[in-house]
Write a structure and sequence with these properties.
This protein has 471 residues and is α/β, with parallel strands linked by helices. It is built from 13 helices and 19 strands. The strands form three sheets. It has a nine-stranded mixed sheet. Strands 2, 3, 9, 10, 11, 12, 18 and 19 form an eight-stranded mixed sheet that branches. Strands 4-8 form a two-stranded antiparallel ribbon. α1 packs across α9, α2 runs parallel beside α7 and α2 packs across α10. Bound molecules: flavin-adenine dinucleotide (FAD).
C-alpha cells in the first residue's frame, strides 16, 4: 500500500476514536481513594503511585510487615505511564540486552540474571496476591522491514547466544508465518524474557496488594514540598503533612518535589492507538497465533501487540520532547503523530484496511542519557529517588523500587554494588541546548533509518561518549 493511501485510511479510521487510555477506560477501575489531610507520622512515605511506588510499598511491607507506609499519589494510582504503556513486561533492566552490554560489559551477566529473577518475581507476586493482569510469557519478535535491519539482527544474535539466550533469526517467509505483513524481510524471535500484561490491571492489583499489607494510599494528594524535620522528614500535601523517617520519590517523568532529578531525567511523550477487536477473518489474515509482542528493528520503532479481546495496540515511533522538561495533559493528544502512526499501521497490515481505532492517547516516558533508571538521594539521604527507565519500565520498575528500598534502608548487596546503580549517567545539558540536542539527535536518527542505518558524525560523537536519546 502506498503511504498516500495509508494516510487517507488513517484519517478515516481515527475519526471516531476517543481520547482516552484504553486500559483504564474500564468498568473494573477501582474507586478513587481518599485525600491526605491533617498531620500524621509514619515510617516510610512513597511519593507517586505508579508501578515504582506500588512495588516499593509491596516489597517494603513484605520485608518488614510492621512498617507504617503511606503512598501519596498526585491523581489516581496509575495515572502516569504505568497505565498508559504497551504492557511489554521485559526481563531486561537495561533497556534491552545490547544497551546493557554496551554500557556495562563486565556486569552484563549479573544484570541479565537479576532481570530474569525480577521477571520471575513479578509472576510470583501476581500469583501470591491473585492479581489477574493477563500476564502471558509470549516472547518477542523483532521485525526487519529493510535488509540492513535484518543484517543488524544477525550480527546481534551472536551476543545473545554467547550470553546463553535463545534467539532464532527468521527469513521473510519464517517471520510471516508468525505475523503476516507484506513489509517484513525477516526478523528475530526471542521466546523468553518478555511477558505481556494488562498494565492497568497490574496497577489495580498492586494497589490492592499494598493495601492488604497495610499501606495507606492517598489519591489527589501531591507532595508539594519536602523538608528536614528533626531526625526525619516532613512531606507537605495541599491539605496536610506526613512526618516520616524516610521517603522514596517515584514520580518518574513527572516533576515531583525533588527538582534536581531533571538534571538526569527528561520526559518524552510517546503515543499509542488501540483498534477495535478484530473479527476471526481479520485474525486469520494476520496469523499471530503465538501472540508475541512485536517491535520493529529500525532506530525509530513501532511496538505492537494483541489484547485479550484481539484488538491491536500500536504505539511508538515519534517520541517527542517538549521544551524545559514540560509535562502536561495537552501533550497527550497529538493529531499529527496519531495520524502518522495510524498510516504506518495500514502500511504494515493492508489486509486490515476496514479496521478503525477506538482509543488514542499519549504519556510521558522518563529517559536518561543511558536509557536506564538512575537513583539518587536528597535531604541528608533521608529521601531516595529513582527514575528514567525509558520505554522499558513495566518490568524494571520492580527492580528500581527494590534498589530504592536497599538504598533507603542502608542495605549493601549485589544490587547496590552495580555500576548502573552507583554511577549516574551523564546529565542532560540545560535549556536551550537540551532541546537543541534532542532535536539534532532525533533528526540524525531519522536520517540513519533512511540511510540503511548509517550513523552520521553527530550520532558517532554521542556513541563515543556513550549517550543518546531513545524512547
Ligand atoms: C505510551 C507509553 C508506552 C510505554 N510502553 C512500555 C512498554 O510497553 N513496556 C515497558 O516496559 N515500559 C513502557 N513504558 C514505560 C513504563 O510505562 C514506565 O517506565 C513505568 O510505568 C514507570 O512507572 P513509574 O511508577 O516510575 O512512573 P509513573 O507511572 O509515571 O508514576 C509516577 C506517578 O507519580 C505521580 N506524581 C507525580 N508528581 C507527584 C507528586 N508531586 N506527588 C505525588 N505523586 C506524584 C503521578 O501522578 C504518577 O502516577 C511506556 C510508557 C509510555 C508513556
Amino acid at each position: 500500500m502506498t503511504s498516500t493511501s495509508a494516510n487517507a485510511l488513517a484519517s478515516e479510521a481515527l475519526k471516531n476514536s476517543s481520547r482516552a487510555v484504553f486500559w483504564s477506560d474500564s468498568p473494573d477501575a477501582p474507586p478513587t481513594l481518599p485525600t491526605q489531610t491533617g498531620a500524621q507520622a509514619v515510617d516510610l512515605v512513597i511519593i507517586g503511585g505508579g508501578f515504582t511506588g506500588l512495588w516499593a510499598a509491596v516489597q517494603a511491607l513484605e520485608d518488614n510487615p510492621g512498617l507504617d507506609v503511606v503512598i501519596l499519589e498526585a491523581k489516581d494510582c496509575g495515572y502516569g505511564a504505568s497505565s498508559r504503556n504497551g504492557g511489554f513486561c521485559e526481563a531486561s533492566l537495561t533497556h534491552g540486552f545490547h544497551n546493557g552490554l554496551s554500557h556495562w560489559p563486565d556486569e552484563i551477566d549479573t544484570l541479565q540474571r537479576l532481570g530474569n529473577e525480577n521477571l520471575d518475581g513479578i509472576e510470583e507476586t501476581l500469583a501470591r496476591y491473585n492479581i489477574s493482569a493477563d500476564f502471558q510469557r509470549t516472547g518477542e519478535l523483532s521485525v526487519a522491514t529493510e535488509q540492513w535491519q535484518l543484517d543488524e539482527l544477525h550480527e546481534g544474535a551472536a551476543d545473545y547466544r554467547a550470553a546463553g539466550e535463545t534467539i532464532d533469526i527468521l527469513d521473510a517467509e519464517g517471520v510471516k508465518k508468525l505475523v503476516n505483513s507484506p513489509t517484513y524481510v525477516g526478523g528475530a524471535h526471542r521466546p523468553d524474557g518478555t511477558a505481556l500484561v494488562n498494565p492497568a490491571q497490574l496497577v489495580w492489583g498492586l494497589r490492592a496488594a499494598a493495601e492488604s499489607l497495610g499501606a495507606k494510599i492517598y489519591n489527589n494528594s501531591p507532595a508539594v514540598d519536602v523538608q528536614i524535620d528533626g531526625s526525619g522528614l516532613a512531606i507537605f500535601t495541599p491539605h496536610g503533612t506526613v512526618h516520616c523517617d524516610r521517603a522514596i520519590s517515584a514520580t518518574n517523568a513527572y516533576p515531583g518535589p525533588i527538582k534536581r532529578i531533571s538534571n538526569w531525567v527528561i520526559p518524552v511523550y510517546d503515543h499509542v492507538l488501540m483498534t477495535e477487536p478484530l473479527s476471526s477473518e481479520q485474525m486469520a489474515s494476520i496469523g499471530w497465533q503465538g501472540r508475541q509482542g512485536v517491535g520493529d528493528a529500525a532506530n525509530q520503532f513501532h511496538y505492537y501487540r494483541l489484547t485479550q479481546d484481539n484488538r491491536i495496540l500500536w504505539g511508538g515511533y515519534d517520541a517527542t520532547y517538549h521544551f524545559n522538561n514540560s509535562v502536561s495533559e495537552r501533550h497527550e493528544d497529538s493529531p499529527e503523530t496519531h495520524r502518522k502512526i495510524a498510516g504506518h499501521f495500514f502500511e504494515t497490515f493492508p489486509q486490515l484496511e476496514d479496521l478503525t481505532f477506538t482509543h488514542r492517547w499519549g504519556g510521558p516516558i522518563a529517559t536518561t542519557t543511558k536509557f536506564t533508571a538512575t537513583w539518587g538521594t536528597s535531604h541528608e539521604k533521608r529521601l531516595t529517588w529513582v527514575a528514567g527507565y525509558t520505554g522499558l519500565g513495566v518490568g524494571a520498575s520492580r527492580f528500581g523500587a527494590r534498589v530504592a528500598l536497599d538504598l533507603s534502608f542502608g542495605e549493601q548487596n549485589e544490587r547496590t554494588e552495580l555500576a548502573m546503580v552507583r554511577k549516574k549517567p551523564l546529565p542532560f545539558p540545560p535549556e536551550p541546548i537540551r532541546s537543541l540536542g534532542v532535536a539534532i539527535t532525533k533528526r540524525s536518527i531519522q536520517a540513519s533509518d533512511a540511510n540503511n542505518g548509517a550513523r552520521n558524525a553527530w550520532l558517532k560523537l554521542l556513541d563515543r561518549f556513550g549517550v543518546g536519546f531513545d524512547s
